[in-house]
Design goal:
The complex is a heterotrimer of chains A (293), B (304) and C (393).
Chain A (H helix, E strand, L loop, with lengths): L4 H32 L6 H18 L4 H30 L3 H27 L12 E4 L2 E4 H23 L1 H11 L1 H6 L4 H26 L7 H15 L4 H21 L5 H15 L8
Antiparallel strand pairs in A: 1-2
Helix pairs in contact in A: 1-5, 1-8, 1-9, 1-10, 2-3, 2-4, 2-8, 2-9, 3-4, 3-8, 5-6, 5-8, 5-10, 9-10, 9-11, 10-11
Chain B lengths: L2 H17 L8 H27 L6 H15 L5 H23 L4 H27 L4 E2 L6 H24 L1 H18 L4 H23 L5 E2 L1 H4 L2 H14 L5 H20 L4 H15 L11 H4 L1
Antiparallel strand pairs in B: 1-2
Helix pairs in contact in B: 1-6, 2-6, 2-7, 2-8, 2-10, 2-11, 3-4, 3-5, 3-8, 3-10, 4-8, 6-7, 6-8, 7-8, 10-11
Chain C lengths: L1 H23 L4 E7 L6 H21 L3 E3 L2 E3 L1 E7 L4 H14 L4 E2 L4 H15 L3 E3 L5 H5 L5 E3 L4 H14 L4 E7 L2 H17 L2 E8 L7 H10 L3 E5 L2 H13 L6 E4 L6 H7 L7 E3 L8 H14 L7 H19 L3 H10 L1 E4 L2 E6 L2 E2 L6 E5 L2 E6 L17
Parallel strand pairs in C: 1-4, 1-5, 6-7, 8-9, 8-10, 10-11
Antiparallel strand pairs in C: 2-3, 12-16, 13-14, 14-15, 16-17
Helix pairs in contact in C: 2-12, 3-4, 6-7, 12-13
Classes of the chains: A mainly alpha (293), B mainly alpha (304), C alpha/beta (393).
Chain lengths: 293, 304, 393
């Protein structure tokens, strides 16, 4: 079959690109869960909102999608503040234990999922939407990639690294990590959860929205596009270790690679089984995830 | 068997007998509506039996339901309906036991995440299997039982589910499950085999979901992976049980009936907004009434 | 007293004026249906099917009403969301036919939903003409009240095979989606190609919702087939087009089944759509009737109909309309009129045999300069085919 080194490289690159997108989507959810134990099952719906907003800006106002990304991030950040205040703040305060917070936030996430998805359905209809952007093919080392996919990948990696740097080296980042390790201890030292929690939640949604905006350049947009990404994001953050940003990136890339190579050697039909197989295997071997502390 | 339990079981059986007359009293549509109510009574009760007690939130109801539906799809040609239905339950239970043995040692959050995608996983697995070995993806059911038979079967499953919930709650097994939910480590140190209890509880609740899938699938004539593994079923089950109060006995039952009727009314009157209303309802309930409506009820039916 | 009597007379007169038109009018013809407005089926249902129901009803009422054996009566649509759920489909039609006793029914979207309604339709005896249901199994149920107006897989795949044979295509690579639709089309394609002597050198399948087909396309590109056929659903149709372009995989013939007929395909793919073929029956250039349908659809919904099943959905309503004109609302007579008649519609003549539309041929269409031209069969073609396919732009 004449399979060259170049073929494997392209396969790997393909897997990494898909994986990078998975990681980007998972980053926001990871922040919310790691800090606040909020299992936001509706995460994908905010990705979908980001996609629609970017599409709207592009088709109605003629704005370059890249330029609308910061606006989308801001819009979703503000939305995140509102959603946190209305839906999740009360849970964090009133719950007797962490498990209960997780359980209740899971259910609220469920409710949000149906609320947001159907609001989008009412607003924009069930039709497929799409636009073309940056589809020019870029040649990298003999392999060919669409510009928009490379962009999504590049952004995913950049965002993950930026987040990692933020968490490790800035005061805010240290505060967040402190809160993740020991909520009471952090409060004793004067870190204010009332400010930090909504900000982190909003940041999570903003990341989801930006991921959606990037994805809208590559794939088509429908009100139900978000759900599969939620499932994948959940797998990624569990794989990488709940709360670990580096784990998130690594987990996403790993999942992408496993899917790409797995599909080649077996069949594309087994993609889901492969993802789940990896998921279960990792959890059995290392129940706290690959990179947890 | 204590008196409370005996009285509860008696009441459930009596209700069942009364409801058995409906096929001869109602129109097709109203009977279907009743069927829908009973289906969710069974699903919510069996879900509450495990997840309500142990706080291990299972989002896998759709997976078990779909497995049961496929047992009917494969077996109805060779087996009678009366056998296919319990078989659907048994196979779903076995599957749950298998999955449970692999992942029930995980914490609640991991467990919930895993069950969330389980429906997808089973759907893809069945699609692959069917496509590769049976060279088909959907199955057509040509000889199906009458509407009255289907209704009575579902009624029987609902009665069994509520009865099982009642019986389990007062048994040692139920206490073990509640112990897991209250403080799993302490239960273990007290000598409860939490692993076995969890697996058994999970499997038992899966049995009812599977049997329901096997019973109801005949109404659709055509079984295909995409339609029988419908995540909305899992969502509604959780919603109904939580609204009703997953720790109570009557909560899920009353909630299932009210909910099914209300959704149908909303769907018929507000065709576009009702799903949004449902989502909103869930959020409001979790925030302001986390114990569900059942926690408002006093007395026997709240604790049974 | 005079004042009181005057007031009473005035009120009576007003009441009469308000109520009289209602008394004088006939009851409207009630047409019931359930269709997906939410859930996975909604995409297709809201693009291809429900808009046509609404458009038709509006047009009929604007013209004075539906002619029932000579007498005109207004049409009232009674539609519900079936949530892409088979159980809801069954229950809703039980309500419509059993409890509400509507005069006519229209079908839901998709093969799965139509299967679910079949027993109910047979029990209550309402004829139903389905524009988005395909499959031998469906017709194999031999339900006398069910009519499929969309071309079945063997018809479409035979047309494709004929077209390719006429272009001397010898080898082909095929991928299909792991759903009943994909399987049936694949089966029909294999038979048709075998008969025409076209060799299938690669065959792969993939699950619905796949996000990356590059590995598969790379394999196929290496084998250099004359034709590439993707028996795909909309998301994969878009994916396979974008990724083939990424890989510069440009066979002489490139065909993607469902989704190519959607206007959004052209919008999203832009110039890359040029030369791509797919399932399609018509376009506004075919006839004056087709053009006026197209214009009316755009005027009402601000979006174009798709170039395949949309027209079949509208044509089904035209068939129903003509049949009711002749046979009235007696359901048995109506069924017979549909089964035995020949009808003029925007897609040409329609005649059924054993529930299948046997007059609309299999068609191959191709995007050329922004329109999905019909390129096969030659007597229906609106433009000659571009073969080989031009390079990706």
């Amino acid at each position: 079959m004449g399979v060259s080194m170049g073929f494997w490289l392209e396969l790997a690159a393909s897997g990494l690109i898909t994986g990078g997108i998975y990681a980007l989507v998972a980053l926001g959810l990871n922040l919310q869960y790691g800090l606040m134990r909020i299992m936001n099952i509706s995460h994908g719906e905010f990705l979908m909102l980001g996609a629609y907003l970017t599409w709207l800006a592009h088709t109605v106002l003629g704005v370059n999608p890249l330029l609308s990304l910061p606006a989308v991030a801001l819009a979703l950040f503000v939305l995140g503040l509102v959603v946190y205040r209305l839906c999740f703040r009360a849970i964090a305060r009133g719950a007797p234990s962490v498990e209960v917070i997780e359980a209740r936030s899971l259910l609220i996430g469920f409710g949000l999922m149906y609320l947001v998805q159907n609001a989008a359905l009412m607003a924009w209809g069930a039709d497929l939407r799409g636009y073309s952007f940056l589809t020019e093919v870029v040649e990298v080392g003999g392999a060919r990639f669409a510009g928009n996919r490379l962009l999504a990948f590049g952004f995913a990696v950049a965002a993950s690294l930026a987040l990692l740097a933020l968490l490790r080296w800035t005061i805010v980042g240290k505060a967040v990590r402190a809160m993740m390790q020991s909520p009471t201890g952090a409060q004793l030292v004067g870190i204010d959860t009332a400010v930090l929690h909504p900000v982190v939640f909003g940041a999570g949604l903003a990341l989801a929205g930006v991921a959606g905006g990037l994805l809208s350049m590559v794939y088509e947009i429908t009100p139900s596009m978000g759900e599969p990404y939620t499932v994948t994001a959940l797998i990624v953050i569990v794989l990488g270790g709940l709360g670990s940003a580096a784990g998130c990136l690594a987990g996403g890339l790993l999942l992408g690679l496993v899917e790409a190579f797995g599909m080649h050697f077996t069949s594309p039909s087994l993609k889901m089984l492969l993802s789940y197989g990896v998921f279960i295997a990792v959890l059995l071997a290392r129940p706290k995830g690959l990179f947890s502390r | 068997m204590n008196t409370n339990l005996r009285q509860t079981l008696g009441a459930v059986l009596a209700a069942g007998c009364a409801l058995a007359a409906l096929p001869w009293l109602l129109s097709d549509f109203l009977l279907s509506l009743a069927l829908s109510c009973l289906m969710y009574v069974a699903l919510a009760s069996s879900w509450a039996m495990f997840s309500g007690a142990t706080h291990y939130l299972s989002l896998a109801t759709s997976a078990f339901f779909g497995i049961g539906a496929y047992v009917t799809a494969w077996g109805l040609g060779t087996l009678p309906y009366a056998l296919a239905v319990p078989l659907g339950g048994v196979i779903a239970a076995l599957f749950a036991a298998l999955v449970g043995a692999a992942v029930l040692h995980l914490r609640g959050a991991y467990f919930a995440v895993l069950t969330f995608g389980l429906g997808e996983l089973v759907r893809h697995a069945i699609t692959y299997f069917e496509k590769t070995y049976a060279k088909t993806v959907g199955r057509v059911l040509t000889e199906v039982p009458e509407a009255a038979t289907v209704y009575l079967t579902v009624l029987a499953i609902a009665v069994a589910a509520v009865a099982a919930n009642a019986a389990v709650r007062t048994s040692r097994f139920g206490l073990a499950l509640a112990g897991v939910g209250a403080d799993e480590e302490r239960a273990q140190t007290l000598g409860v085999n939490t692993r076995q209890a969890k697996i058994a509880g999970f499997a038992l609740s899966a049995f009812f979901a599977g049997a329901l899938g096997a019973a109801i699938a005949v109404r659709w004539t055509y079984i295909e992976p995409l339609s029988v593994f419908n995540p909305f079923i899992g969502f509604q089950t959780v919603l109904i049980a939580m609204i009703g109060g997953a720790q109570t006995l009557a909560g899920p039952v009353a909630s299932a009936v009210v909910f099914s009727l209300a959704t149908e009314l909303l769907r018929l009157q507000f065709p576009y907004a009702y799903l949004m209303l449902l989502g909103l309802l869930l959020i409001v309930l979790v925030l302001y009434l986390p114990g569900g409506i059942g926690s408002l009820l006093k007395g026997r039916w709240a604790r049974a | 007293m005079h004042q009181a009597t005057a007031v009473k007379t005035l009120v009576a007169a007003l009441l009469a004026a308000v109520l009289a038109p209602a008394w004088a009018q006939d009851a409207p013809v009630r047409i019931g249906y359930a269709i997906a407005r939410s859930g996975p089926w909604a995409l297709g249902a809201q693009l291809t099917q429900e808009p046509n129901y609404i458009l038709w009803a509006d047009q009929v009422n604007a013209a004075g009403g539906l002619s029932v054996k000579g007498k005109k009566r207004k049409v009232e649509l009674v539609g519900f969301d079936d949530r892409s759920d088979a159980e809801t489909v069954v229950r809703t039609y039980e309500k419509l036919m059993g409890s509400d006793k509507v005069d006519l029914i229209l079908p839901p979207w998709g093969t799965g939903a139509n299967f679910a309604v079949m027993p109910v339709v047979q029990k209550f005896g309402y004829p139903m003409i389905a524009p988005t249901a395909t499959g031998r199994k469906l017709l194999g149920m031999k339900n006398p009240y069910f009519f499929a107006i969309l071309q079945q897989p063997d018809r479409m795949m035979n047309a494709l095979a004929e077209f390719l044979k006429a272009r001397n295509v010898q080898t082909a690579a095929m991928i299909h989606v792991d759903e009943l639709f994909g399987l049936e089309q694949a089966g029909a394609l294999e038979e048709a190609f075998k008969e025409k002597g076209i060799r299938i050198i690669e065959k792969k399948s993939y699950p619905l919702g796949v996000k990356d087909l590059k590995p598969v396309l790379n394999d196929i590109k290496a084998k250099n087939p004359d034709a590439f056929i993707a028996l795909s659903y909309p998301p994969d149709t878009f994916l396979v087009t974008a990724q083939a372009r990424e890989l510069a995989f440009n066979p002489a013939a490139f065909y993607a089944a469902v989704g190519t007929a959607f206007p959004v395909y052209r919008d999203k793919m832009g110039p890359a759509a040029e030369g791509v073929m797919g399932l399609g029956t018509w376009n506004p250039k075919m006839s004056a009737a087709a053009k006026s349908y197209f214009d009316a659809h755009v005027a009402k919904f601000n979006k174009q109909p798709d170039r395949w099943a949309s027209a079949h959905a509208y044509a089904a309503l035209q068939v129903m309309q003509r049949a009711v004109e002749k046979a009235g609302l007696d359901r048995k007579a109506l069924r017979d009129a549909i089964a035995n008649g020949e009808f003029d519609t925007i897609i040409g003549k329609i005649r059924f045999r054993n529930g299948e539309n046997v007059t609309t041929p299999g068609v191959v269409s191709q995007w050329q300069s922004g329109e999905f031209e019909v390129v096969w069969p030659p007597d229906r073609a609106t433009s000659p085919a571009l073969h080989p396919k031009p390079a990706w732009r």
